[in-house]
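#help-structures

NK: newbie question. if I give both the sequence and a SMILES, will the prediction place the ligand too? trying with NAP
OV: yes, paste both and it writes out the complex. here, I ran yours:
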Amino acid sequence: MKIAILGAGNMGGAIAKGLVRSGLNAADITLTRTQPEVPEDLAALGLAVTTDNTEAVAGAEVVFVAVKPWLVSTVLQPIAAKIPSGALVISVAAGVTLADLRADLSRAKGVRLARIMPNTAVGLCCGVTAIAGETPEARDAAKALLDRLGLTVVCGEDRFGAITALSGCGIAHALRFLRAGQEAGLEMGVPAKMAGEIFAQVMKGAAELVLHSGTHPEAEVDRVCTPGGLTIRGINAMERAGFTGAVVQGLLASLPEK
Ligand SMILES: NC(=O)c1ccc[n+]([C@@H]2O[C@H](COP(=O)([O-])OP(=O)(O)OC[C@H]3O[C@@H](n4cnc5c(N)ncnc54)[C@H](OP(=O)(O)O)[C@@H]3O)[C@@H](O)[C@H]2O)c1
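OV: that's the protein plus ligand as structure tokens.
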């Protein structure tokens, strides 16, 4: 399957890396950017980069649009007529709707269209990707490909704002929690690298417990908290410092306006 990824930055690069890690052939994937140099991490996986969007989409069965939202029209309109009929165009651009994309693709013939909201963990095939399709067929085709990159969530475009906050931004919020744990470990005398690795594994384990068992997070908390014990003492101290309120406020502040 020949794939073009327009935009070789954080997200375009993460998608490319995830697709290669999932077993697709790097030789079938072409990324584009404004500079001719191939970023080292992409070159290491055998991925090719060009500055020519038209060349990249020639013969492509899937075209990812991974440029900044305000550049989508500038990038798509001039190449729309060159995208092969039947190709699946998948946009990651935050806030750019399927209707906006279809308008940019007005000169394209027989192109299927989907819009996604991934997070950067797709590069390690453990991301979360929300998917909306212009048609059920386009949505299912996008899902079949993106299932390679982690969890996929099929939803309407009206959910994209919330999923952008929870997943696209939420990964940075979770990393800030990780850094806080690392700093606490450091204060307790644990070397920073060791504290970071331990707390990262703790977060991964906590996530796996919930994902694996399907239980409410609080049920797992209850299993760890001995009455009168250290864990509940720590949790209550966190809550007195406003932990849950701070997390909710942070995620709500990351909710896009449109
Ligand atoms: N970052 C995230 O966590 C995240 C999450 C969800 C969705 N998104 C969406 O992903 C998109 C890209 O964001 P990003 O964070 O990856 O941005 P980024 O790191 O700045 O990458 C943008 C890429 O687009 C390339 N580019 C700019 N103009 C171009 C053109 N005319 N033709 C071809 N390539 C061009 C840039 O080239 P150069 O390398 O030469 O500068 C760069 O490689 C955005 O629409 C954003 O909403 C991002």
